[in-house]
Amino acid sequence: MPEPVSTKSTYTMGYNEDFLQMLHWRSAETHARHLLPHLEPGLSVLGFGCGPGTLSVGLARAVEPGEFHGVDIERTQIDIARAAEAGGHSNATFHVADATDLPFENDTFDVAHCHTVLNHVPDTHAVLGEVKRVLKPGGIISCRELIAGSSFSEPAYSLAGAWETFTKLVVANGGHPQMGKELKTRLVEAGFVDITATASVDMFSTPEAKAVLDGVITEWFFSPKVMAAATASGLATHEQFDAWKLDQEKWRQHPGSVGAIAFGEAIATKPR
Ligand SMILES: C[S@@+](CC[C@H](N)C(=O)[O-])C[C@H]1O[C@@H](n2cnc3c(N)ncnc32)[C@H](O)[C@@H]1O
User: Fold this and answer.
1) How far is CA 109 from CA 39, 44, 141, 165, in A?
2) Ligand 1 pocket member 54 (CB < 6 A)
3) What is the Å distance from ligand 1's center to 31 Cα?
């Protein structure tokens, strides 16, 4: 077994511009479709692990004049989210905070939402317990999380190996790359009820969408930092990275190529 890249909780993706392109491509309308039918004006919503707030804008709009509170552990992301808040949503407030230690009273929110956050926080039980504490009885939790094992590039060439190495990097950093399919089990364990589990896929097919996925792979996954972490810990070799770079170029040029990122979703209720 290779040594873990880090024994501490480390957010695998980091906060560089290339990965942020992927987050800026997201919105509540496209990435919280399973939640929107449950929102109505006047509800209070917590977005935990809100990142730069691109989903937050639409969630805040859906519950206006109810309050939206976004929290993220990383100040740079909250600064970006606050700039979006200045874009016209006076009901949105953002806080730097850890999802395992939320700065809110018991029974505060009607709804709590996360998107690709449980994938990265080592202690799922601690997050779900803390979110349950701040939800009102009868309030709902909504999650949408990556299923790395169902995500792919097509034509795949040798790129399935790149997806596998990415998966191992997330695990080595204490994360849960298959969380999207584990959501229902984790929510049952945390004491939530009335759980609806669904799934959906982000398909990268248009030139613009392919460029977003290609940017993350070429600028983030092939970055010296990620390659050094993967090779130093024995998760991949330099020769494999060289082959993946060539195959990523072939994927980029292929007129029929697509990429897919798979997600599991769940809505669940805090018992009354
Ligand atoms: C993949 S990003 C997703 C951001 C946003 N939800 C989205 O989908 O666009 C994961 C975010 O979770 C945040 N995060 C990781 N661990 C956290 C924790 N323990 N508490 C709060 N936020 C955390 C990271 O800082 C990062 O902004």
Assistant:
1) 12, 5, 10, 38
2) yes
3) 15
